[in-house]
Write a structure and sequence with these properties.
By secondary structure, this protein is of the alpha/beta class. It has 6 helices and 6 strands; from the N terminus they run βββαβααβααβα. Helix 3 packs across helix 5 and helix 4 packs across helix 5.
Length: 170
């Protein structure tokens, strides 16, 4: 029988509210924010139902949490965290493109679809952004409708606007 995988997590507070960072043996696999720590942990259980989740407040884990929070607060600050982007091949392809978008720059779902060679897949790109479990670090908040209008954001429309304004200032 295979050993169950373990994901370690820690919680803290950012200007956007409570935040949770989760780390697999390959890197950061989740960054969530919500109105309560209880909801964050419940969301983590839903996202990773077949792994053991372990609260970890050791110095190495709190250092990762602090780096993630620092990036939320100052998005122009370089990020030096290994990411473990767990999703379908298409989702990972979209998320890789998101990582190339500089802070302060906004793009559209259509533009990303074109960049990955599937110009008609803009709805699938939007769905991949909505499924992104690594908020802010994989910057789906930098993507909006081609009309320039902000559309849905899993972590809240107000948070999307806050992040975009914060990045525009840097």
């Amino acid at each position: 029988m295979k050993d169950k995988k373990t994901i370690r997590y820690s919680t803290g507070l950012s200007s956007l509210g409570p935040v949770l960072v989760a780390v697999s043996d390959k890197g950061v696999c989740a960054l969530f924010f919500s109105a309560s720590v209880k909801k964050l942990v419940a969301d983590l259980h839903c996202r990773f139902p077949s792994v053991d989740l372990c609260l970890d407040n050791t110095p190495p884990m709190t250092h990762i949490l602090q780096q993630a929070i620092a990036h939320i607060e100052s998005p122009a600050m370089p990020l030096n965290l290994q990411l473990d982007m767990q999703g379908t091949a298409f989702q990972r392809q979209v998320w890789q493109v998101l990582l190339t978008i500089p802070a302060g720059i906004l793009t559209s779902y259509s533009d990303i679809a074109s960049q990955i060679g599937q110009p008609m897949a803009f709805r699938a790109v939007a769905n991949a952004c909505a499924k992104n479990p690594i908020a802010v670090l994989v910057p789906c908040h930098r993507v909006r409708h081609k009309s320039g209008k902000n559309t849905g954001y899993h972590w809240g429309a107000d948070n999307k606007k806050i992040l975009q304004k914060r990045e525009a200032l840097n």
